[in-house]
Amino acid sequence: MRIGTLTQRLGTTTHAVRFCERHGLLPAPERTENGYREYSEADAERLRLLIGLRQLDLSLSQAAQLAALCSEGRCEQVSAELRSVLAHKRADLRRRIAEMRYLDRHLAHLEGDLAAGEPPRPLITLGKEDRHDRAL
Fold this sequence. Notes:
Number of helices: 6
Number of domains: 2
Strand content: under 5%
CATH class of the largest domain: Mainly Alpha
CATH topology of the largest domain: Multidrug-efflux Transporter Regulator, Chain: A, Domain 2
Distance between the termini: 48 Å
Largest sheet: 2 strands, antiparallel
Shape: elongated
Radius of gyration: 23 Å
Helix content: 55-70%
Structural class: mainly alpha
CATH architecture of the largest domain: Orthogonal Bundle
């Protein structure tokens, strides 16, 4: 399949496909007599997995490594690695959600006090001394 068909099928861009080729994330495709790139089903599946892994917020290098392993027929190893990675990702996500909820509560409190005519400086620094032991 040509690059246009591949990009439509996977919902990506020609720029993204060429980026993957340049950086060795996707093997260089065969070329037709007239020089067009000709992608195989294996190329499409590798790129689909790479895109899916990136959508899970895996780093590009980690996603590329896992996609390469699967394209080599070692998908069981990828599944095992993903179980560990996803557990860490979910723990990090829960931490980030808690931080966002804290921030939302703080902003709502500040917004309410500002609407009531309170000056902003004491409100912004209020409680700062309680946060010295929290990593922000």
